[in-house]
Amino acid sequence: MCAKAQQLVNDRQFDKAIAVLNQAQAKYANYADIYILKGDIYNFTLRSDSAFSCYKRAIDIIGEPDPLLYYIAAGEGVKCGNYEGALQCYESFMQKGLQYSDVLADAQKGMANCRFAIEAMQTPVKFKPANLGGIVNSEWDESLASITADDGMLVFTVGRPRDEKTVCAFCQTEQDLYYSMKEPSGWASRKAFESPIRTGYNEGAQCISPDGVYLIYTMCNADYGMGSCDLYWSKKMGNKWSRPRNFGAPVNTSAWESQPSMASDGKTIYFASSRSGGYGGMDIWKTTMTSEGAFTAPENLGAAINTPGDDAAPFIHSDGRTLYFASNGRVGMGGYDLYYSTLQADGTWSEPKNLGYPINTSADEINIFINAAGTMAYMASDKDGGFGGLDLYSFELDDNLRPNPVTYIKGRVKDAESGAPLEATVEMVDLNSKESLSQTKSDAQTGEYLACIQTGSNVLLNVSASDYPFYSENFQIEKSYTALEPYLKDINLQKAEVGTVVVLKNVFFDFDRSDLQPSSYVELDKLVDYLEHNRVNIEIAGHTDNQGSDEYNDRLSMERAKAVYDYLVQHGVAADRLSYRGYGKRHPIADNETEEGRAANRRTEFRIVP
């Protein structure tokens, strides 16, 4: 009967083969070959729990089987989450199967996985996933969620049945990109991206940039591509998306490039690739967009992140430093697990940490996305109770797994006089490290902008447009895992005319002194750059609050204005284009009766003069 069952297996009639073997088992309950063949069928058809039970039964009957059977059984035990049983099988194999040298390393890793999983299940992390509902999910597969920094737009991949426009001849499904917009009541009904994004090819494995400006995604097997799967980018202009463009060389190759994630700096893009020069089958790489559509040669993230296995699905959080990714090359629950690592001050990555159980399980976990605030995570699952196939779920992220929280500022950039929308560069800079934290442009058609504000640092906001003096703000937000309120602010830029006044909100002095603090240099360098590109003359004005005598305030404000003047001259600005003056407390812009008002009155500004 085993021979008959084997023939059915060869003909891929697995259910009939199982029926034959069940009949044989009823007659010959202690015949080990029956259980081994059943185990092989269950193994092949991905029914690991049944496979493990059959292999274990065969082992018990034989008593001293070929040690390789322990190894095979252990692998199925891990897949179905029977870590205790799998560990016993691995231990037996290591005791008796040393001649199978080609799989010893894999067996040792399997043992480590079992021990990790047993401990992880005893100390679970917080995980209560909620289905995003039928507005977003369907009977098809939904996966790979990404969300803008303001939680306003959800973009995801849908695997739908092929239709007459599907180009791939051998594909039973076609992947397309969909989106949903956030409304006060929740997510709005999903919509498919239309042309020029949507084609008959497979588009998916995407990210939406934190500012919502760029859609970066994967297209596979396109006639005009460079390999099996390539990266493409499209830019939002008003309510439309530009024609997608292939990243081209050196990012795309004849190998597989996919799963992009764009950092909030607006230029660093992480992605997965099977290109040569890595550490394993798939590795995580990064490239920098030096100008729109121009990219640097990809850089491998190195052995701190990549393994001899497959490392993929990178997601860089809006804090620019916390990287989440999937790997099957590290100790975990088995298969692909999710990990995170933090970019250190010296440019190295910390030792990746497993997100723990039950986020990770014996199944493959291959993607996670976390909102800017660091509180809510999104992932796909085919767990029972969904709408069919993979569904998108959200869950509150365990405190110990959270990145640095990020908030945002959004609004419109407009001409102060006409109200017309302006395309402007909106940049956030760390005043201490001088590192550019995020950069975006306001939409030329609407003036809309969205920029991330990182916490735990002293941050400059600089908004600049051609022919306009720049606008600046200062943000100092301490790290907090509580809800962070966003900033909603329309920015009106004044034209460069005689009399235009700009407050330098990121120029700082010590108390009762006129020495510039180093954190002032970023803003002053922006002013130097502005004066280099615009032929205007300016007066630098110092102002104080109403505390102290007139003589004291006049002297202090004059000395502070001169300190700015000296800095500009030292950095190449012609002295004959500059003047300075201290106005003391004579021109307040806020109520001196409050500390907040007095702080606003203590300011340095420049005014365009003839």
Looking at the overall shape, the CATH architecture of the largest domain is 6 Propeller
**CATH homologous superfamily designation of the largest domain:** TolB, C-terminal domain
Outline type: elongated
**Mean pLDDT, as a whole number?**
93
- State the domain count: 4
Describe this entry's structure for a reader.
By secondary structure, this protein is of the alpha+beta class. It has 4 domains: 2-122, Alpha Horseshoe (Serine Threonine Protein Phosphatase 5, Tetratricopeptide repeat), CATH 1.25.40.10; 130-401, TolB, C-terminal domain (Neuraminidase, 6 Propeller); 405-495, Carboxypeptidase-like, regulatory domain (Immunoglobulin-like); 498-610, 60s Ribosomal Protein L30, Chain: A (2-Layer Sandwich). The chain is 23% helix and 31% strand. The chain has 10 helices and 35 strands. Strands 2, 3, 4, 5 and 6 form a 5-stranded antiparallel β-sheet that branches. β8 and β9 (229-237) form a beta hairpin. α2 (14-27) runs antiparallel to α3 (32-44). The model has no long low-confidence stretch (mean pLDDT 93).
